[in-house]
Amino acid sequence: MKVLITGFGSFMNVSDNPSGRIARALSTHFADRHEVSLLELPVSYSEVQKLLSGALHVSQWDVVVLLGVAGRSRKIRMERVARNQVDQTLKGSDGKLSAHSVIMEGSPDRLTTNVPIDALLPPQDALRNSFRISTDAGQYLCNYAYYLALQASLAENSECWTIFIHIPPDEKTFAEGNRSGSMWNSADLQAQVELMVERILALKPKSTSA
Q: Residue 81's closest CA among 128, 26, 142?
């Protein structure tokens, strides 16, 4: 199976972004069983758009997994929806704001993943202790990247599964002096995300396209 995994780099007080670190680990973990490509994204509107536009010919992928950090979250969030909105008060790590309040002019207000999240997290499943389903990916670069990825899939009428997973902080995430309580252990966090991606890949039907 052909898999694209993305994660973000450092920004603001996030000195070691767990999404980028776990994305790198996933690309190694699954490499012996799948054709895995890694795309590390800077926290920049222009760079995210440029890099994703080059990578997201989704007909070449069976699964696209995008990772990002949610600094105030305590559970890993499976994002169901991306919104065509940008908070123009939030700068990227390059110091630049989004030039527009919407991601794509003339496109739907919201796009929904084609990944069957409810099947991945059935009621009473043990992973629900670590994961929750979310319908709010925010208005920053995580939502921005997710919307671009879902729009690419829609435009190509692709069978590719596209999902965004929001990662809570762990003990390595914040710069010294910006740490908070109730953070995950980094090894446990990575293991849980690996389990979920394993489920996604196991559940994904084989593509019928040539």
A: 142
What digits encode the pLDDT tens for the residues 145-183? 999 999 988 877 678 999 999 999 999 888 765 555 557
- φ, ψ for residue 78 (rounded to 5)? -90, 110
Q: How does pLDDT run across 1-27, given as a tens digit for each residue? A: 999 999 999 888 888 899 999 999 999
Buried b (16+ CB within 10 A) or exposed e, 130-160: bbeebeebbbbbbbbbbbbbbbbbbeeebbb
Strands (E), the chain: 2-8, 35-41, 63-69, 76-79, 81-83, 110-112, 131-134, 161-167
Q: What angle do CA 195, 180, 20 make, to 5 degrees?
A: 40
CB atoms < 10 A from the CB of 46, how many? Answer: 13
Q: What pTM was estimated for this model as a whole? A: 0.93
DSSP string, 95-156: SPPPS-SSSSTTS-SEEE-SS-HHHHS-TT-GGGGTEEEES---SSHHHHHHHHHHHHHHHT
Give the total residue count for the chain: 210
